[in-house]
Design a protein that fits this description.
Arc Repressor Mutant, subunit A, 5-stranded parallel sheet
C-alpha cells in the first residue's frame, strides 16, 4: 500500500453483530480505521457525513457490505452508493454466501469492485481491501501530483521519441505486443497519455467516471502496468499512442 492503513477509513456493513464485529476488529488489528454499521441506511448516512475522525477523510476509502441483509440489502446499498456523486468512486467489496452466482452478477453489474465469499480467510479479506484501495488510488492518480505526471510524460516523450530508447519515434522502434485494445479502451488510453485525470477522461470520452475506471483497470491488467506512468510508456513504446 502507498498509504499507511491508519490513514484509511473503511465502513463495514452487516446485520449480524458477530460477523460485523469480527470483520471490524480484524481490519482494525491490521491498522485500518473502521466504522461498523448494522444496516445499509446507517452506512449510507455515515458515508455521506463528510468528515471522519481521526483520519479526516471526507469519504470512506472502502466499503465492505454483506449482500443478504433485511431492508436495504447489499446490492441496493451499492446502487445507492453509485448514485451519489461524492461516493460513486469509493471501492465496494460485497460479502456473499458461497455459490450465490446471481448475487455476484448483480453486484458486478451495479459496480462492485470485488467479492468475498463466506467463509473467508482473514488474510484474504485484508489483501482484498488493500488491493481495491491501492487500485483506486492508481486509477485516479491520488499519489501523483499533476505537475509530476506532466513531468513524467515529458520525460517519456523525450526518451522514447527523441532518444530512440525503445519508442515509436524516427530513431526508435515499435515494440511488439500481443495486447489487443478495444476502441473505447484506446480512446481512454489516448486521453490518459495527454495527462488527464480519470474524471477529466470520463468527461472528454463522454463516459461515466465508473466506466472510465473500469476501462483503465482492464488495461492495467492486460499490459501488467503497475501505474499510470508505466501504462503511458507501454502505450507509446508499442505505437498504440502517438505523443
Amino acid at each position: 500500500m502507498w498509504r499507511k492503513r491508519s490513514t484509511c477509513w473503511v465502513i463495514v456493513v452487516d446485520d449480524e453483530e458477530p460477523t460485523r464485529k469480527a470483520i471490524g476488529q480484524l481490519l482494525y488489528d491490521f491498522g485500518y480505521q473502521v466504522t461498523a454499521c448494522a444496516d445499509g441506511n446507517t452506512a449510507l448516512k455515515v458515508a455521506l457525513s463528510k468528515s471522519h475522525e481521526p483520519t479526516g477523510n471526507s469519504v470512506p476509502d472502502a466499503i465492505i457490505t454483506d449482500v443478504c441483509m433485511p431492508g436495504m440489502d447489499g446490492i441496493e446499498l451499492l446502487q445507492k452508493i453509485r448514485d451519489e456523486e461524492t461516493l460513486l468512486e469509493v471501492p465496494v467489496v460485497l460479502v456473499t454466501a458461497k455459490g450465490m452466482t446471481q448475487d455476484r452478477i448483480a453486484g458486478y453489474d451495479s459496480g462492485a469492485d470485488s467479492y468475498l465469499t463466506k467463509p473467508f480467510d482473514p488474510d484474504e479479506l485484508v489483501a482484498i481491501v488493500d488491493n481495491v484501495i491501492e487500485r483506486h488510488e492508481t486509477l485516479n492518480g491520488a499519489n501523483i501530483e499533476v505537475d509530476d505526471l506532466k513531468r513524467d510524460l515529458n520525460e517519456i516523450k523525450y526518451l522514447l521519441l527523441e532518444e530512440g530508447g525503445g519508442g515509436a519515434g524516427v530513431n526508435g522502434f515499435v515494440e511488439k505486443t500481443n495486447v489487443f485494445l478495444a476502441p473505447d479502451e484506446r480512446q481512454v488510453l489516448e486521453l490518459l497519455c495527454k495527462g488527464l485525470m480519470t474524471k477529466e477522461i470520463a468527461v472528454k470520452a463522454n463516459l461515466s467516471t465508473r466506466r472510465a475506471e473500469q476501462l483503465l483497470t482492464r488495461m492495467f491488467r492486460k499490459t501488467k502496468a503497475k501505474n499510470r506512468t508505466e501504462l503511458v510508456r507501454w502505450a507509446v513504446s508499442t505505437g498504440n499512442v502517438q505523443l
